[in-house]
Amino acid sequence: MIRQYELVEAVKAYDPDADEDLLNRAYVFVMKAHGAQTRASGDPYFTHPLEVAGILVGMRLDVATIVTALLHDTVEDTLATSEEIEQLFGKEVSFLVDGVTKLSQIQLQSDKTKQAENFRKLLVAMSSDIRVLLVKLADRLHNMRTLHYIKNEEKRKRIALETSEIYAPLAERIGMHEVKDELQDVAFGILHPDARESIVQRLDYLHEQSGDLTTPVIDELHEVLNENGLAAIVAGREKTPCSIWRKMKKKNVTFEQISDIVAFRIIVDTVQQCYRALGILHSTYPVIAQRFKDYISTPKENGYQSLHTAVIGPNQQRVEVQIRTKEMDEIAEMGVAAHWQYKQGTAHDGHQYRWLRDLLDILDTAEDPEDFLEHTKLEMFQDQVFCFTPDGDLITLPRGATTIDFAYAVHSDVGNHCSGVKVNGRIMPLRTEIENGDQVEVMTSKSQFPSPSWERFVVTGKARSSIRRYIRQQKRQQFIKLGKSLIQKGFKESKLNFEEKALEKALDEFQARNIEDIYAQIGEGLRTVPVLIRFLHPELPHELDLEQLSDGRERAISGSKEEALAISGLIPGMAVHYAGCCHPLPGDKIIGIVTTGRGVTIHTQECDSLNPLMDEPERWIDVAWNLKAAESQQHIGRLRVTLSNQPGAIAAITAAVAKENANITNLKIDHRSHDYYEFWMDLDVKDAEHLNSIVASLRSLKKVLEVNRAKS
């Protein structure tokens, strides 16, 4: 725990003009405010804000941010008020504290909704001042360091998942890679303890067998640079267990197949020396193709700059190298926080981050908090490609983004009226994926509007939320028109006069803001015409059978197949089957194949069984998952596993599957030898991501030689 005089001295060491009185008053205030409160560890509660402040002092942040760190829990967890904070510490600190404070006073429907609402408020606050996010990340970092003291396992996992899905990507987005790595790795240990332990054991074994992996490489790189007259700092750092596990999942490889467990860094004084160091490496060692990236001439959105390359280096090892200046290195590790050391105040303005503006656009277009959270995760989790407008403006998009994503990145109106695109001067389909360096020109038309099919191939949260918003508005107009027609018809069949103004009496009963809301509820099938008539005309004899009023909507919906609800793009009631060859799961890209007498069979787009059907395009139907409906159904995922023929091997498999909250429904061994055996395994899973997590966990087991998902 940092003491009062230590805190003041540490701040004044890098900011001699710091307001010492403000720091002292905040320190004393937080000690008194939290009083005898304790944390799950049994420590006094005030140790937490002191540790958070200590983390930010290590980043050399300004006094207002340090004071905010000290006070960030006082409004929520003590008797202190926002007015009191503003009176004692000023408007700037009060605003920052409010941005970090949780929405404890709002009654929300679920933990997921609460998480989304908290995140929504955090985004709004940090859009005006990015320091709100810095304090929140430091707060979450200390909470993760002490998470093991929480006894409730479910609560630990919920906090770890939130950290992994929201706070770690946010830290990465503003360039704070050290914070991101620690958040991810602690969360990984909570969510996948067996996988992390297995990777740690393999790293330990690797160290025992190979000794020091970094020093010989560092020494040789240093010598090569010196021989060419370039003085540089050379360092190496081992990837975290979490980043190794993620790479195993992403590349679909085993631990033994990863050859770049250690990343090396060359730090020089100037940009010119960066390119000189690159030339020395490339002329000394064989270069690994397609591994060079120049983030100096084209920086990432978070300000990250560096040259990335990979070579076959010392002892024929594959070596990943990052080359940067000292300033670039500070910004790479500390991101926004490093700007205080080089350009005072420039990092205060959150609007310099295009991705943050995109998140705010999503906030405006999302239907509900959970919808917003889904699209926000899409926006934060992707790798990037760099492309240009015809005027040369740089647009950064997630890898796999299409020209429609580009159009929405330029402006929502451009996306909504996109009628065609040119990529590098050639007219291309709207679903064309953008590559690094592409120049994209968007053609628009006032008569063009978003198509529901666009949502199936866009990847950015901004594009998807904008498309959904437009479609939602269009559907509402259709529901209003249908609802009005049904009401008029119902009144006519009941021999009643219909007067639109009379519907105002039902606004409170229907929880509607206006008459159009009532029409929309009837048209969508959320309310029925008989219920409306009985409310407006309670004098009608009870024996009058209003349920006979024609409202085909209920019958149409109730007559649809349950399986069809999970798939969009089909006619309700159509018979649907999931292919037994590839076992499609929610999250997979899928295609529908029409089969005479069987309806539609759903395959993954990578399924080998589709190859013979290439000459029958008339049987193919463009379909997609309705993820919300799919959540309530059971799904089968099939794996092909090659396992060492050792005692306890099957037990290790079943234990790993159980840890991932999945169930083995079928297991068939089709080849067995003295050393190994191969089998098929069917699992009850939630979706494709769930199955991928199981695959990654199985690959981390020593006895598993190979595991892949079935494709045919």
Estimate what percentage of residues fall within beta strands: 15-25%
Give the overall shape, derived from the CA principal axes: globular
Distance between the termini: 58 Å
Radius of gyration: 30 Å
| Number of DSSP E strands | 20
Q: SS-based structural class?
A: alpha+beta
Helix content: 40-55%
- What does the main sheet amount to? 5 strands, mixed
Strand order, main sheet: write it out.
1-2-5-4-3
Low-confidence segments: 102-110, 339-352, 550-564
Mean pLDDT: 80
Oligomer: single chain
Helix count equals 28
Would you give an account of this structure?
The chain is α+β, with helices and mostly antiparallel strands. Helices cover 46% and strands 15% of the residues. It contains 28 helices and 20 strands. It has a five-stranded mixed β-sheet. Helix 4 (63-71) crosses helix 9, helix 11 crosses helix 12 and helix 18 runs antiparallel to helix 19 (369-380). It starts with a helix and ends with a strand. Mean pLDDT is 80; it is low at 102-110, 339-352 and 550-564.
Set down the secondary structure blueprint.
Blueprint: H1 4-14, H2 20-34, H3 47-58, H4 63-71, H5 74-77, H6 82-89, H7 91-100, H8 111-128, H9 131-145, H10 153-173, H11 177-191, H12 193-210, H13 215-227, E1 233-238, H14 241-251, E2 262-268, H15 271-284, E3 293-294, E4 307-312, E5 318-325, H16 326-334, H17 339-342, H18 354-365, H19 369-380, E6 384-388, E7 394-398, H20 403-410, H21 412-416, E8 418-423, E9 426-428, E10 440-444, H22 461-493, H23 515-524, H24 529-536, H25 552-558, E11 567-568, E12 576-578, E13 590-595, E14 599-604, E15 620-621, E16 624-625, H26 627-630, E17 635-644, H27 649-659, E18 663-672, E19 676-685, H28 688-699, E20 704-709
Parallel strand pairs: 2-5, 12-14
Antiparallel strand pairs: 1-2, 3-4, 4-5, 6-7, 8-9, 8-10, 11-16, 13-14, 13-15, 17-19, 17-20, 18-19
